[in-house]
Amino acid sequence: MNGPEIHVSLAPELRFFAVPERRRAWTAVVTDGVSTLGHVVESLGVPLTEVGRLLVNGEEAAVSHVPGAGETVEVQPVVRPQRVPGAPLRFLLDVHLGTLARRLRLLGVDAAYESEDIGDPELAARSAAQRRVLLSRDRGLLRRRELWAGAYVYSDRPDEQLRDILGRFTPGLAPWTRCTACNGPLEDADKETVREKLRHGTRRTYDVFARCTVCDRVYWRGAHHARLEAIVAGAMGEFGDARAALS
Question: What is the DSSP letter of 13?
C-alpha cells in the first residue's frame, strides 16, 4: 500500500495475533487511504471479535472510520464480561472444540457442535441463522463477514478453555440439565422406563436416572461421575454467581 501512514497501538492482550514486528507499543502502518479501520485492524491479524473500543486520536471511533494520515489508533480488547445483545446467549463450536462443547453442556450451557468438519462457510452461516456465538481457534473463520458473533478460544487446554469462555460471557449455569452428546434437555427418568437400555450391572447398582428428551440417551452416576463432579464444582465455585452479580 502507498497511502497515509497511521500509528497503531494494540493492547497487550491482542499483540500475540500480530507478526512480531507489529507487537511493539506503537507501530507505523501505511494504509491505502480507502480501507476502513476495521479492515486495517484485521490486516494486522486481529479478529474484530476480540476488539473492544477503537480510539482515534484519543476519541472513540467506529470500525467503519477511514483513517487519515498521522492519526493514532489504539485498539482495545473486548470488555469482560462481554454482553451479546440480540438473542439468548448460546454457542456454536467448531470441530476442534469437542471437549469444550461437552463441558459447557455438562454445565447446562447451550452449545451446538458437529463432530464432523462441516466447513467454515456452513459454520458462519449457522452462527448467523441461529444467532449463536461461534467459538473457534481459527482466526480466518472468525473474520468471515456472515458471522453473527464470535470469540477466539485462546488456549488449547480444555480446563483453560472452559474458564476463558465462562469468564468472558458468564452464561447461566444449570449443571446436569443438558445432554453432553447432543445438547438436548434432560429429564428425570424412572428406572423401569429405561430398564431395557441398561446393562444388568447398571440396573442392579443404580436407581437414579435421567434421559435426553431428544436422543433418548440415559444417564446415571457411573464410574466417571467423580471426575465430572469436580468439573462442575470448580465451575460453580468460580462462576456460579457471576450472572446474578451482573443483574
Answer: G
Query: DSSP letters along 188-233, please?
Result: EE-HHHHGGGS-HHHHHH---EEEETTT--EE---TTHHHHHHHHH
Could you give the CA distance from residue 188 to residue 220 in angstroms, rounded to a whole number? 10
Q: Does the structure show a pLDDT above 60 at 247?
A: no
Global pTM?
0.90
Interval 148-166: pLDDT, tens:
999 999 999 999 999 999 9
Helix (H, G, I), strand (E, B) or coil at 186: strand
Q: 228 with 204: CB under 8 angstroms?
A: no
Please check whether residue 185 is in contact with residue 167, taking contact to mean a CB–CB distance below 8 angstroms: no
Output the CA angle 143-145-150, nearest 5 degrees: 55
The continuous run of DSSP H or E covering 74 comes out as strand 72-77
Is there a cis peptide before residue 4, judged by omega within 30 degrees of 0?
no
Separation between Cα atoms, residue 35 and residue 161, nearest integer Å:
34
Q: Bridge partners of 30? A: 5
- Using CA atoms, how far residue 218 sits from 113, 175, 213, 239, in Å, is 20, 16, 10, 28
Angle between helical axes of 98-106 and 225-239 (0-180°, round to 10): 80
